[in-house]
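Predict the 3D structure for this chain.
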Amino acid sequence: MEVSKRWLAFLRGEKTDRIPVIPMCMGHCAKVMGMPNLGDFYSKPKFNIQAQMLARELYRYDQPPFVIDPGYGMACWGSEIALPYGPKMGAPTPMVSIVKTPEDLEKIEIPDPRTAPWMKEYREMVRLAIEKKQMPAVVMMGGWISATAPMLVNLETFMIWMVEEPELAKKALNMTAEFGYRMAESFVEDFGSDTWVPWDPNPTDSNVLISADMFAEFPLPVVKKLHQRYLDLGIPTLFTHWCADHSQTIARGYVEEIPMGENGILSFGPEVPMDVQVKRFGKRYNLLGNPNPPLMMTSTYNKWLAICKENIEVGMKGEKGYALGVGCELPPPAPPCNVYAMTRAAELYGKY
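Done. Predicted structure below.
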């Protein structure tokens, strides 16, 4: 079965010859191309898509291109970022948020998703991926705290607002949600509703920073509404990466309140064991495996192969669907043999 077809079958809820491998491989693709840093990968559309397609061909995994706004959801608002041209940088880095005071928030207008900084390059990446008959996973930065602080509002300021000025925090969340919706709406206008998959990561919404009560009061109602608006555009499936520790939020049942569409995809960090995911979500959602990314850096090939095998054996018990992934982005400097080990593990232990 061709690699691109496994991803499409996964999205449709169809069985495949083996489990797909979706390692969330991004910056590592620049390393595959021999680049000394990741700057061009994140900022130059043709290089980005070429690198992702060639890395997939090399490792034989099933991941489509993953497309991220080169401005990291910040530059579009007027916030400052640094592209990863430094040798030790792993992604675009937030530098200065444009909103630091309530007065700043009042002055801000929602950006135009076609003309704001880096939108041209962002849209070109999506276009190139679709042109190559892929079904790219496209990051939608809206509604979550992770899409608001520090993207729009300074993170420390936002956390203070959640306690002392909750209406300001909610206003900021709703502003980024509206931008996310307008972005998705413009993509549907230009590319259709069934040629790409919205993907939203939420590390700053985790219980590392906020309690389940705060999650329920702040991002949850905003994201519920935003996801439903995505689906109302005709988009069939959504993909959310629950980065870091969301155990309190899971226990409260808040994950299931967020609309994900048909065959929605959930990805969790290694803090949420695979057996917990299968038991809680395996009948309703497609699940992405979550071996611990740092172990990928320190394990031998045989050890990492065994770690992947263990995750596969548990994940395949999910009734809806399972693909082998990593608990966050595949580390850019990961040993190539361990990237290959993920495909090999799927071939050895993930056949249906």
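The longest strand covers residues 197-201.
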